[in-house]
Amino acid sequence: MVFKIAAIGMLVSVLCQVLSRAGREDMATLATLAGLVAALWLVVGTVAEFFGDVKSLFELY
C-alpha cells in the first residue's frame, strides 16, 4: 500500500509540474486534490478492512 501511495504521489507531482509550466495552475490544483482523494480512498479502505478483521477476530457482532 505504501508503494501505491508513493506512486500516486509521484504521478500527481509530475502532472502538477507539467500543468503549472503550461500555465494551468487551476488544473494543477484539481490534480493535487484528485491525488489526495485517491490516496485517502486507499487508506480508508485499508483501515476499514483492518477493523473488520479485528471485529471478526474477537467475534464482535
What attributes characterize this protein structure?
61 residues; mainly alpha; 87% helix; 0% strand; elongated
Walkthrough of the structure:
There is one protein chain. This protein has 61 residues and is mostly helical. Helices cover 87% and strands 0% of the residues. The longest helix has 33 residues, at 25-57. The protein starts with a helix and ends with a helix. The relative contact order is 0.13.
> How many helices in DSSP terms?
2
Q: Kindly, what is the distance between the CA atoms of the first and last residues, rounded to a whole number of angstroms?
A: 28 Å
Percentage of residues in DSSP E strands: under 5%
What letter string, H or E per element, gives the SSE order?
Answer: HH
Question: Over all CA atoms, what is the radius of gyration?
Answer: 17 Å
What's the total number of strands?
0
Mean pLDDT: 92
Structurally, the number of domains stands at 1
Poorly predicted runs are: none
Write a concise synopsis of the structure shown.
This protein is mostly helical. The chain has helices at 2-21, 25-57.
Layout of helices and strands, plus pairs?
Blueprint: H1 2-21, H2 25-57
Helix pairs in contact: 1-2
